[in-house]
Amino acid sequence: MDISDVNALSYEEFVEIFGNVVEKCPIISAAIWTQRPFSSLAEMEAQISEFIDSLPQSGQEGILRCHPDLAGRDLRSGTLTRDSQEEQSEAGMNTLDPLEVSRLGRLNSAYKERFGFPFVICARMNNKAAIMRELVERLGNERTAESKRAIEEVKKICHLRLGNIVLSELPNKL
After folding, report:
1. What is the pLDDT of residues 25-65, one digit of tens each?
2. Whole-prediction pTM
3. 3-state SS assignment for residue 1
C-alpha cells in the first residue's frame, strides 16, 4: 500500500487498517481520516502527532492506559494485540526467566502506582535488558515529565507501525 492507496480508503477501511497504530485507540485514526488526502506518510504521521499533542494531559494519559504491561498478564495469556505481541517478542519479553518476570512485575506495579498508567517504551527499539534499565531509571521522573516521555514512546511505536503498513519514504531511524 502506498499513500495514494491510503487516501482512497473508505472511513471504515481506514479505521480498520490504522486503528491500532496507537495501541487500542482507533478514535485517533477516525479523527485524522478527515485530513485526507495526505501528501505523504510523514504528513499522516504528523496529523496523528498533532492530534495527540492537542489532547489535555488526561487524554494523553488515557492513551497511555491503553497500553499493556510489558511481559504482563496479557502476554502470558495471549490476549495482546497482534502488534504488541510481535513487538514484545522482538524485544525478548517472551523469553524472561521466572526471576526476570517477578522483577518486571514488581517494577511495573511500582510504576503504575507512581504514575497512574503503564510503563510505555518502544519495545522494537530496545531489548529486555535496556527495557529493565529504562524502567528503573524512569521511575525517578516527575509525573509531568514521565507523561511526556511516555507519549514520545507512543509516537515512536506509531511511527514503526505506520511503516509496517505503508510503503513509505519514512526513515527507519527516529
Report:
1. 999 999 999 999 999 999 999 999 999 999 999 999 999 99
2. 0.94
3. coil
Q: So what's the pLDDT on residue 73? A: 87
Whether the per-residue pLDDT at 169 is higher than 60: the answer is no
Cβ contact 63:25 at 8 Å? yes
Residue 159 annotated as catalytic: no
Does one domain contain both 83 and 20? no
C-alpha cell at 81: 494485540
Within a domain: 166: no
Instruction: Answer yes or no: is 171 within a domain.
Output: no
* 134 occurs within a structural domain: yes
Radius of gyration of the chain (CA): 16
Closest CA to 70 of 25, 117, 26: 117
Q: Of these residues, 3, 21, 28, 67, which one is catalytic?
A: 67
In the chain, the number of structural domains is 2
For residue 30, the enclosing domain spans 3-62
- Residues whose CB falls within 8 Å of the CB of residue 158, separated by 6 or more in sequence, listed in order: 21, 22, 45, 48, 49
72 and 132 fall within a common domain? yes
pLDDT, tens digit (0-9, with 9 covering 90-100), for 89-136: 999 999 999 999 999 999 999 999 999 999 999 999 999 999 999 999
Grid cell, residue 59, equals 487524554
